[in-house]
Amino acid sequence: MASYFTRSDGAYVFARWGRPIVPVVFGMQDATLSVFKGAIEAVVALAGHKMAETDPELGANLMVFFCRDWSELEDVPHLDSLVPDLKPLVARLQGADANQYRIFRFDDARAIRAAFVFLRMDDHLAAVPAETLALSQAVQTILLWSDRAFMDGSPLAVIKGNAVLRPEVADVIRAAYDPVMPSFADDPSHAMRLAARIRVPS
Question: Where are the domains of the chain?
Answer without folding.
Answer: 2-196
